[in-house]
Write a structure and sequence with these properties.
alpha+beta; 4 helices
Length: 115
């Protein structure tokens, strides 16, 4: 399958067009089924928590004592990145995923494993 990204955030697929927002919504819906590279995600998440805590201390003058990376699930963080992250953050997240995704008839699904 070939695809391209146009200025209006469309993906061109063999079965027609699908909006990027719709594709992200479908991915968020199946994120709990995905096998995410825990080490790659964990490092990125820990760095983000450090950055947030530094922002709280330096800009807002708040103590960040209660914020711990252990309190948040990595898959919840992945969903947040898909909703609110930059294009680069989304790309990094997708590169950490081990599961293969397929799009058929404008529906995103996990590829059936052949064991």
């Amino acid at each position: 399958m070939s695809y391209f990204r146009s200025p209006v955030s469309f993906l061109r697929l063999a079965g027609g067009y699908i909006r990027e927002e719709e594709l992200i919504g479908q991915l968020i819906g199946i994120i709990d089924q995905l096998d995410v590279n825990e080490l790659g995600m964990k490092y990125k998440f820990e760095e983000e928590v450090k950055r947030y805590n530094k922002f709280q201390r330096n800009v807002l003058g708040m103590s960040a004592a209660g914020n711990s990376a252990k309190d948040v699930d990595l898959k919840t963080y992945a969903k947040y990145l898909l909703k609110e992250g930059s294009v680069i953050e989304k790309r990094e997240l997708l590169s950490c995923m081990k599961s293969r995704l397929v799009i058929r008839n404008k529906i995103l699904a996990l590829e059936a494993s052949t064991v």
